[in-house]
């Protein structure tokens, strides 16, 4: 999907500007993000920087489309950062591997809070309406990943800092351990 900015493009390292008004350009950029994320087969979220826009908004896929969160803020976190785990239908536990559309075929273990309080704005009647919610599990992990993008922080930064595991994993192939220093 060529519409998504790939690492090491510098826009991925920029801190974004707050959205202060909903002009035609910003609304067009929001619609572009929604369209790209909706078309993505394996993307769960997308930040404005990943489409080359240095503004504070992100999208998260939901059952009935894409929700756009404007000017998101982390209000609070609960507990400690941990490496999230997944449990399959047989009860077998494994590492949750985080990926990123700007890093195709690369995945890794990232320490995240499993419960956060988030604040953002959404468009309602052509105006910005404030929202606040406690997010848990996958939704909290996804929110943190996309929010990090708006701060110029990438999931590989967390893996490198915390000593997480890093893999190259192409469809139809086995995971291969990768030295993160060869990527960043």
Feature tags:
single chain, 184 residues, alpha+beta, Peptide Deformylase, five-stranded antiparallel beta sheet, four-stranded antiparallel beta sheet, 3 helices, 11 strands
Outline the structure in words.
The chain is an alpha+beta fold and 184 residues long. It has a single domain (10-182), classed as Peptide Deformylase, CATH 3.90.45. It starts with 23 loop residues before the first helix and ends in a 7-residue tail after the last strand. 21% of the residues lie in helices and 32% in strands.
Task: Outline the fold blueprint.
Elements: H1 24-39, E1 45-47, E2 57-62, E3 65-77, E4 85-87, E5 93-95, E6 98-99, E7 106-108, E8 115-124, E9 127-136, H2 137-150, H3 155-162, E10 166-168, E11 176-177
Antiparallel strand pairs: 1-2, 2-3, 3-8, 4-5, 6-7, 7-10, 8-9, 10-11
CATH superfamily: Peptide deformylase
What is the number of helices? 3
Q: Assign the CATH architecture.
A: Alpha-Beta Complex
* Main beta sheet strand tally, sense and closure: 5 strands, antiparallel
Number of domains: 1
At the fold tier of CATH, the topology name is: Peptide Deformylase
* CATH classification class: Alpha Beta
Give the CA-CA distance, first to last residue: 22 Å
Q: Please state the average pLDDT score.
A: 95
Helix content: 10-25%
Spatial order of the strands forming the largest sheet: 1-2-3-8-9
Global structural class: alpha+beta
User: What's the SSE pattern?
Assistant: HEEEEEEEEEHHEE
By DSSP, the count of extended strands is 11
- Taking all Cα atoms into account, the compactness measure Rg is 16 Å
> Low-confidence parts lasting 5 or more residues at pLDDT below 50?
none
